[in-house]
Specification:
The protein is mainly beta and 61 residues long. It has one domain. Helix content is 0%, strand content 34%. The chain has no helices and 3 strands. A 3-stranded antiparallel beta sheet has the order 2-1-3, with no helix packed on it. Strand 1 and strand 2 form a beta hairpin. It is elongated and about 45 Å long.
Length: 61
């Protein structure tokens, strides 16, 4: 939905459970509900282990 003068509707940030890569040289992460594995590895970058954490990111609708 667009507002007057082509301003876009603001996106709300929410706390979201994510998987975050444990490798200090890697910044890979993904939303928890995007993985079918119980404990995924970092697929796109380094294939290291990942840990659960909570981030404040834009809500997906």
């Amino acid at each position: 939905m667009a507002y007057f003068n082509n301003q876009k509707e603001p996106v709300e940030n929410v706390e979201t459970n994510v998987w975050s890569c444990v490798n200090d040289d890697c910044q890979g992460w993904m939303r928890e509900n995007y993985s079918f594995e119980k404990e995924p590895t970092c697929p796109p970058i380094c294939h290291s282990e990942m840990k659960k954490e909570v981030r404040v990111i834009p809500e997906m609708k």
